[in-house]
Amino acid sequence: MTRPAAKGGSRASADRLARLLNLVPYLLARPGIEIAEAAGDLGVTERQLREDLELLWVCGLPGYGPGDLIDMAFDGDRVTITYDAGIDRPLRLTPDEALALVVALRMLAETPGVANREAVERALAKIESAAGDLVGAPVAVRLPGDTERVRELSAAVERGRALRITYYTAARDETTERTIDPLRMLMVAGRAYVEAWCRRAEGVRLFRADRIDAVAELDEAAVVPPQARRHDLTDGVFRPSPDLPLITLRIGRGDRWITEYYPCERVEVDGDHWLVSLRVTDLGWARRFVLGLGPDVTVLAPVELAEQVRAQAAAALAAYATPAGAAPSADQAVGAVTQ
């Protein structure tokens, strides 16, 4: 019985075949090249290259006799192809491969914050030139969040100008006017951000592009103080820390998505409900968050948050001014109460 190939074996064979097909035209263009230099260019070890050369010796045209097989000459540690058996050109991209590379490079070139965009554009130009008509079909690349506002901000950042923006801060549910000195544009989890020195806060801040309601480019260059430090966004924009408020909620089945969308410090099963603890930027944001979840959520801690939720729910009920005796209590309308 034939044993199945080891996992990854077929992939390794395919990689070696592609390497062998490109090896012959590579060596033809460099007669007498040192094996060590060739191995470095091709990204393999000298041992692997020698094994590839030994395999090439038994490859060639049908008939596989003298004059049919690939032949080469060795002079010490140098190698020269003396017969190529017709394999004198490197592999060409298929139409799908060429188009995929073009789309990927165009997307990379449009991504805010790319450090060396010129290198990307040079590589794109070379591939488009080599592929010719294969990529002649019109292709429009649009990134998530790639709006006119993002393009406007990117252009202003590249010009190195200070900006005056009108910005909505969701955590505090307020809109403020700010003057900022941009450092860079970023794309994190599909959202565009401007990282900038905020003169109002006197610190480096991240401003989400879709929350900038208005922007005006000033007639002055952006000046970033030497003490400004860029954010480490390896783990995302929001990084929970012990100094942030910790809230604990008792949630029903319909709100379990919270544990996948937000970083939670603790998740415990409590019958049909879950007990979830997570850090928040401030209690104002947490109050609006809880009120938006609906009646199957209970605030367990802190007490201050439960009282804020109860008070706002009561105020909302009072605004509707329903007949006496017919209005439900705040506790019935919103399940966010202290236990």
UniProtKB/TrEMBL annotation:
Signal peptide: none
Protein name (Swiss-Prot/TrEMBL): Proteasome accessory factor C
Domain WYL: 150-215
Domain WCX as annotated: residue spans: 248-317
Organism domain of life: Bacteria
GO CC annotations, alphabetized: proteasome complex
Record InterPro entries: CBASS_pafABC_assoc_protein (IPR051534), PafC-like (IPR028349), PafC_HTH (IPR043839), WCX_dom (IPR057727), WYL_dom (IPR026881)
Pfam families named in the record: HTH_PafC, WCX, WYL
PafC HTH domain boundaries: 15-128
Coiled coil: none
Keywords: Proteasome
